[in-house]
Amino acid sequence: MVRTKTIVFLRNLLVKGNLSPFYTKVTGFNKELYHITPKVCLALQDNLFYIKDVPNYLQVDPPNKLKLRIIRALEGYIIRFDGFSVFKDYLDKNFGAKSKSNFRRYTTRLEKCFNIDYKIYYGNITKDEYERLFKVLRELLIKRFHQKKEANYELQHLDEFKTILFDLIIDKKANLFVIYDDEKPISVRINIHFKRMAYYILSAYDIDYAKFHLGTIEMLKNIKWHYEQNFEAYDLLKGYGYYKKKWMTHTYHCENHIVYDPTSPSAVIFSFLKVVWGRSYYSLVKMLKSVGANKPYKKLKKHLFKIKNPRISQKKVSPIAIDSIHSNETLVIIDIKSDNDYAFLKKSVYDFIFYTQESFNDIRVYKLKKRPSHFLICGKTQKKALVLQ
């Protein structure tokens, strides 16, 4: 019976630094990136390796005694920095004047409204802060995907990354990019490096700050940092093409490789059947996407998520006329940042700040003593009344 061992290519390359025994050499960007002298390997016999998501901008060589079959899978997105003498050249190539103006406006407004700090942990991080950031990252991922009403496939890998990433950061083989509001992390991104290549792994930001375009800000700052650190490219990997396409300079295809022993008839037959099935599968996926059939599938997944998670509910508030709050009513000040009982107000308050362009330090939030489901946001120049639905 043929047994298949599944390998995730980048996990072995970036984390373990070992592609033996299925590859002996990897080249890319006109140079050798990985090489190992093949040892006398035990015959694979009826076994084969199934290596997932090999970027086709890399060329791989299996040992001489093994053969390779290729399945072309999904599209990936990469930012190549060659050809850009200054970072502005990259921005000019990918974005128009309006987009570049928006980038500046987003950053300026975020920093005007909150006490923002950007930190890149690269070569140094305390264990306590490392533990805290992974706890926050988990919370942000859960919160974001509950909002999207989708299961989060990234969560299952988070503990694995937590186990390995600390040493990689200390060795400058990875970094954590964090945006802080005061001392609170509101955006966390993991990148792993190999040679002069950088790979985006995963990220999450606090959706309460969504109006401030945190995702755009942290993406732009990550790209700029990797450019300034003289990385040759920043691979954004596959998925979320609707977003990554505006940042990338090139696309590529992920490939699934089947490495097998050609002297084993059963391995030859099984590898052939696996290739036929794999190519048919990805052709079908591409065809369904082209006709929009993936949209009903996404709706079905959201519906199933609601069924599996019936207890997930969020308190919602709606705006009401400001004159519905009478001047003689007693107001009780509340702290939405430290009091979790009122965390559901954060997004409404932050949206108010975004539009009024006031500092959070100048904002006061109150509840009505006799009508505790009613709230009042007060800035220097404007007010807004809310009611809990």
UniProtKB/TrEMBL annotation:
Residues 98-245 form the BioF2-like acetyltransferase domain. Gene3D superfamilies: 3.40.630.30. SUPFAM superfamilies: Acyl-CoA N-acyltransferases (Nat). InterPro entries: Acyl_CoA_acyltransferase, BioF2-like_GNAT_dom. It comes from the Bacteria. This is BioF2-like acetyltransferase domain-containing protein.
